[in-house]
Amino acid sequence: MTPTPTVGKRRRRLLRRSRLGQYIALVVVLGTLAGAVWFGWRAYDQLVRYPQRAGSGDASVVALEVPRGASFPQVLAQLVEAGVVPADEALYFKLFVLHRGAASKVTAGEHSFRGDMTPEEILAELVRAQRADELRVTIPEGRNILEVADILAGAGFAAGFGRDEVLAAMRDKALLAELKIDGPSVEGYLFPDTYKFPTRATPTQVLRRMVEQHRKVYAGVARAHREATEELEKTLGWGDREIVIMASLVEKETAAKHERPLIAGVFLNRLRFMNFQPKRLETDPTIIYGCTALVEKSPACQQFTDRIRRIHLRDTENPYNTYTHEGLPPGPITNPGKAALEAVLAPKKSRFLYFVSRNDRTHQFSRTIAEHEAAVEKYMRQGAVGDGSAAGAAVEDGADGG
Asked: Within 10 A of 263 (CB to CB), how many other CB atoms are there?
């Protein structure tokens, strides 16, 4: 059938409208693409030139501290607020930093900027390595609280605290209660080690860290020697503190590591052997500690210079004098390391009850008082001076501590 004239006109009209719509759609698409290309090219051009473009501000310095853990958006907000990055360029700076892959490299700490810096210079300052905010401090084995206080006071902490401030913290009753230390000071619980402390740390914060390290090491040693700790509790009634006290004596008695278990064994023999009476440990370092580290000193200790004399050996008012008091001293006399703690829990078995210095950092061990006195005479003739030899101190007036 042949279409009527009216129907043909309608079809031609619809065809023209369809083509017009297609033309319009094509123009819109082309326009959009052209706009995208133009915007992309402009953005690319800006990013290429942007990093080297100087800021519009002046050359005055702007100090800004980036907090630890701050995200890059937070840092960017700081820069905009301080006027380092103009608000209308924040997006460009963000894209620039992301393009460099540097958003996670911003360092916490103090930074300095100027208003005329380029984005390149701003980013370089943001990722600049900061001055170390930690101090490396080494506490050697065998140091008591006086010596540790000297080390900490001279370590260069930002607070600039002195020896007296450290000692005050070491004897602070509130801190001792917090740390559950049953004694007049933290003596014995400042583990000898190399630490990294924040430069702005206070004496209290430093001491907490050292005591925490002691507890950590001690717990490991005690777990490894559980039977020994139970045996000491059963036979001598010792707990953790008594083990630390004995370890401090072992630490001060010898610098020769191989001798520590043997010396610990001698001290334990003196306390355990029924035929050894009275049960005095007779070790020189305890006298010295009582005469130097205690706040309140006996009259004899007030006359102490640098050598043990007869009045110090016979001093009953020095609570740390193991020549006049039986058993352990009231507290540790130094801060023992791991080897000294292990020596107490794993002593070397022997029948030795005495030892004296050979003057070469080692000791001569004896089973009887006669053997010991002969050893003392031998090494005193060689110029021995008292170094803490059990029952054999060489003193200023030639007295024998045995």
From this structure: 28
